[in-house]
Design goal:
The chain is of the alpha+beta class and 88 residues long.
Length: 88
């Protein structure tokens, strides 16, 4: 079984190639999902970690995800590449 890969911006599992974002050359990104990253750039480059936290909670609640899973996703955000690198 492959190690599950997560978006390094929002923590979404990238287990489906259709969810992967794209690089400038159109190739699939192995680090970011299509909701965060397209054509080699973040869709919302000014988003803060606080903004992302709110967005993740809102989207997961809409999908009726268990609160424990939401907590795990939110707690992982500061460790993801986009946020650990100090990007705000």
């Amino acid at each position: 079984m492959e190690t599950e890969t997560y978006c390094q911006s929002c923590s979404m599992p990238l287990d489906n190639p259709d969810l992967q974002g794209t690089e400038k050359d159109g190739s699939k990104s192995n680090e970011y999902c299509k909701y965060c990253y397209q054509q080699g750039a973040f869709i919302n480059p000014n988003m803060t970690l606080k903004d992302m936290t709110s967005l993740v909670i809102t989207q997961m609640e809409k999908m009726n995800v268990d609160s424990k899973i939401i907590d795990m996703a939110v707690s992982s955000l500061p460790n993801l590449k986009r946020w650990a690198a100090g990007q705000q």
